[in-house]
Amino acid sequence: MIEDFHIRTTRDFLASSARLLERSLRGFDMADERNHIRIDSLCKDIGALTGTRATVVLASGKVVGDSEEKPSSMENHRDRPEISSALSGSLGVSKRFSDTMRRRELYVAVPMIRGDRVVAAVRVSKPLVAIDSMLREMRFRIALTAAIAAILAGIASYALSRRFGKPLDEIKHGLERFTRDDLSYRLPFLLSTKAATFIGRPNSFMNPVASFWS
User: Fold this and answer.
1) 3-state secondary structure at position 78
2) Other beta carbons less than 10 A from residue 63's beta carbon
3) Which of 38, 95, 109, 183 could form a Cys-Cys staple with 82, CB 3.0–4.6 A?
4) DSSP assignment of 98-136, as one string?
5) DSSP codes joined into one string, 21-34
């Protein structure tokens, strides 16, 4: 459940970042190659600002901007699941291994629509190792909190047993002495009113008995 929550939260963050980049690109003519350098620069700025990897892919699958790689060295991305969904006009989400970055990543891509056509896909991703690290830290904190709670409960239980266990043992010992006709023993006094009443009765009962036999 915790992992699902963080995946959803990260996915929503990536989708918001992708939409932010898509809005920033609305003034660019995607077909003009002279704009591709500026698009790549913008991807690098967005990536640095959000701590993510930002990529822009044309409808043909050609990469024209990437925050971590040189676009001209990247292969066609049209067959990537999240890119394919975005180029079809839908939100694309995928968790998979990146051949380029050599690591597992969570990808979210949104369509860039001009008129009635999807002209590009804007994708933002984040390494799953970062999410896994965050989950490990959260699990550790939960486990630590549970351990501390268990220790405190154990201390409280031990303190209570020490508080009431010894007097009750003394009462049991005293009653055993009474049954052996040793009437000189006095039961201990507890702070509890009920316990004091309970203890007072044997003592008050034994006083005249002890006097009679003394």
Assistant:
1) coil
2) 25
3) 109
4) ETTTTEEEEEEEEEEEETTEEEEEEEEEEEHHHHHHHHH
5) HHHHTTTS-TT-GG
Does the global pTM surpass 0.70?
Answer: no
Show Cβ contacts of residue 69 under 8 Å, excluding neighbours closer than 6 positions: 100, 101
| Amino acid in the structure at residue 89 | G
Domain 2-132 CATH class label: alpha beta
Least confident of 13-27, 43-57, 91-105, 108-122: 91-105
Per-residue pLDDT tens digits for 86-99: 999 999 999 988 77
Query: Per the structure block, which two tokens stand in for 98?
Result: 């990146």
Residue 199 burial (10 A CB sphere; 0-12, 13-18, 19+)? buried
**Residue 120 near residue 161, CB atoms below 8 Å:** no
Rounded Cα distance, 179 and 161, in Å: 26
- Side-chain half-sphere CA neighbours of 41 within 13 A: 6
CA–CA distance, 129 with 97 (Å, rounded to integer)? 11
What is the domain partition of the chain in residue ranges?
Answer: 2-132, 144-213
> Is residue 193 scored above 60 in pLDDT?
no
Find, among 156, 159, 167, 161, the residue nearest to 194 by Cα. 167
Residue 71 CA to residue 76 CA, distance in Å, equals: 10
pLDDT the model gives residue 106: 93
